[in-house]
Amino acid sequence: MIAYLKGILASTSADAAVIEVNGVGYLVGASSRTLAALGPVGEAVLIHTEMLVGEDFQRLVGFASAEERDWFRLLTGVQGVGARVALAILSALEPAELNRAIAAQDKAMVARANGVGPKLAERIVRELKDKAGGIVLGPAAAAQAMPIGAAADAVSALLNLGFRPVEASAAVAAAEEELGAGATLDALVRLALRKAAK
Predict the structure, then answer these.
(1) Nearest 10 degrees: Cα torsion 196, 99, 48, 165
(2) Is 187 exposed, middle or buried (0-12, 13-18, 19+ CB in 10 A)?
(3) What ranges does the record give for the region Domain I, renumbered to this chain (predicted)?
(4) How far is CA 123 from CA 52, 106, 187, in A?
(5) Is the separation of the CB atoms in 10 and 25 below 8 Å?
(6) 165-179 vs 150-160: helix axis angle to the nearest 10?
(7) Strands 24-30 and 44-53, how do they pair?
(8) DSSP per-residue string spanning 157-171
């Protein structure tokens, strides 16, 4: 699994960017907000990624922040919300706005996104009300709480196994505290799974 790409922005289009990493160009789908945040072509960029794999495709989707990637994962967990619709929502609303809309059950705000009708917007705010609590932090808190390195990959692994963001972060933080900062990804994931199961 590819957690992020760090390289040179080779080109952008309406819904994707090409990031060159060590001579390989990765095509990464993205929201308009992420594409705007990448900066000019030819500059160094870091983009958080999610790999989508289906029967007949493999696709990378990129995000300006890990927070936006977490929202993408939550959104695509809602029935009827595919990658395209999730990116349309993230193009229309930044993560803090999306958090407020879901907390307030404001389906009209979510329905501003292209391809999101009233029924789908209502399903999104209803289903995500209990799941979204652990994602959005203020910038200062996010800087302190954002896991890096093996810890970030361990959180990602737990999210892919279906844990909620707040549960995954807490379990990995507890595992890292017990194992120390130099713990391997494998050890972190195994201990975090035991702690999350308690």
Answers:
(1) 0
(2) middle
(3) 1-64
(4) 23, 11, 38
(5) yes
(6) 140
(7) unpaired
(8) HHHHTT--HHHHHHH
Widest pairwise Cα distance in the chain: 48
Which structure tokens are listed for 95?
């993560």
Contact 71, 81 (CB under 8 A): no
Structural element, H or E, at residue 27: strand 24-30
Helix (H) or strand (E) holding 35: helix 32-37
pTM of the predicted protein model: 0.64
- Cα separations in angstroms, 36 against 29, 30, 59, 64, 139: 13, 10, 20, 9, 20
8 Å CB contact between 63 and 49: yes
Q: Would you write out the chain's pLDDT as a tens digit for each of its 198 residues?
A: 788 999 999 999 989 999 999 999 999 999 998 999 998 999 999 999 998 887 888 889 999 998 899 999 999 999 889 999 999 999 999 888 888 888 888 889 999 888 899 999 999 998 988 776 555 444 433 433 445 567 778 877 877 777 777 677 778 888 888 888 778 888 888 888 888 776
Q: Are the C-beta atoms of residues 174 and 195 closer than 8 Å to each other?
A: yes
- Give which of 94, 108, 115 is closest to 36, Cα–Cα: 94
Burial (CB count within 10 angstroms: exposed 0-12, middle 13-18, buried 19+), residue 141: exposed
Contact 158, 167 (CB under 8 A): yes
Q: What are phi and psi of 161, to 5 degrees?
A: -85, 0
